[in-house]
Amino acid sequence: MLESSFRIGTVAGIRIGVHYTWFIVFLLLSGALATYFRETHSEWSGSVVLLTALVTTLMYFVSIVLHELGHSLVAIARGVQVRAITLFIFGGIAQTEKDADTAATEFYIAIAGPLVSFALAVLFYFLGLWLIPYSEIAAEALKWLATINFVLAIFNLVPGFPLDGGRVFRAVVWRFTGDAVKGMQWAVIGGKVVAYGLMLLGALVGLQPGMLLNGIWLLALGWFLFAAAEGSRRAYFSSRLAAHVPVGEVMQKDVPTVSADMSLLYWIDAQMLLTGQRSALVTQDEKTVGLITLNDIMKCPRTQWPDTSVRQYMTPLERFHFVNPANSMFEVLQIMREHNINQVPVMDSGEVVGWVDRERLLKILELHSAVGH
Questions:
Q1: 257 and 234 part of one domain
Q2: Which CATH number fits the domain that encloses residue 292?
Q3: SS3 per residue for the chain
Q4: Which residues are catalytic?
Q5: pLDDT single digits (tens) 284-307
Q6: 215: which of 205, 220, 332, 341 fits an S-S bond (Cβ 3.0–4.6 Å)?
Q7: For the whole model, what pTM was predicted?
């Protein structure tokens, strides 16, 4: 879901992005703050109320970015690279290249975010006190920001994955049992308990007069936490499986091939549409010289397909990203992600012995996860 975001900047090499769902919560929160300021400060003009609500909402999301940067900078310092921070409807999330490799690293990364939020709460509180004689409006906004950052820190320390507290809980179990799997299992259980609690609370709140919207929000938050906990469990065990299964065991040995001199139209009609194979290795005199995919073909105007050879639109051999049968599925998936490719040939002793595609690997991982392997 979070791939549908646009970039707003970069901090320390980390891409900061905004998902389209962020605009929903921005409008809702701005509206709620405008109502709050209007009710508590009837002497403020409409323009002051609206501007204060908008600026305060923006500062709240700046706080979330800083919270995620706390996680990210500690992660980088501990050897875990961070690709991006994305703001979305339920807050923010930092996307890392891999999981922490020790309980200590997991603990330090997890606790950094809440500590940043606590620090911001203290900063905004004292800034608000200092500004009271100069600007009641700024002081009121800072008071709200101090409160919401404190609440954010406390909520994130609830021991349920994927909340920060759940990751801290995972690190503690991991540290005392010496078993990362047990740490993850208990953290996910905690996350589901928290999710069920939020959904129950949402149902109870929603039944109260005038509280339907708040109840729906709690229900949605609980559902999101449950889905995130289950998704994290599947991703964690899939990555562990992928790290231990050599690609030679799951590669496709019957590699589709096409002659370099064949026309694009003939390959499409005689091979692709009949077999469903969207890509093939290109051969010349029984030697592999390239790779052709449907995406490559679509770069050529359709009217030119009959007179254009496969060679003209293939990816040449020297630009291939090869793997060998001993490489793990995890390593292959990393190569695919880093280079934005879907097929990787498998080479052994200088010969192509098979290939793997992203869809096949993900399907295998999904099946293992479904049967609890």
A1: no
A2: 3.10.580.10
A3: CCCCEEEEEEECCEEEEEECCHHHHHHHHHHHHHHHHHHHCCCCCHHHHHHHHHHHHHHHHHHHHHHHHHHHHHHHHCCCCEEEEEEECCEEEEEECCCCCCHHHHHHHHHHHHHHHHHHHHHHHHHHHHHCCCCHHHHHHHHHHHHHHHHHHHHHCCCCCCCHHHHHHHHHHHHHHCCHHHHHHHHHHHHHHHHHHHHHHHHHHHCCCCCHHHHHHHHHHHHHHHHHHHHHHHHHHHHHHHHHCEHHHCCECCCCEEECCCEHHHHHHHHHHHHCCCEEEEEECCEEEEEEEHHHHCCCCHHHHHHCEHHHCCEEHHHCCCECCCCEHHHHHHHHHHHCCCEEEEEECCEEEEEEEHHHHHHHHHHHHHCCC
A4: 68
A5: 887 888 888 888 888 888 888 888
A6: 205
A7: 0.71
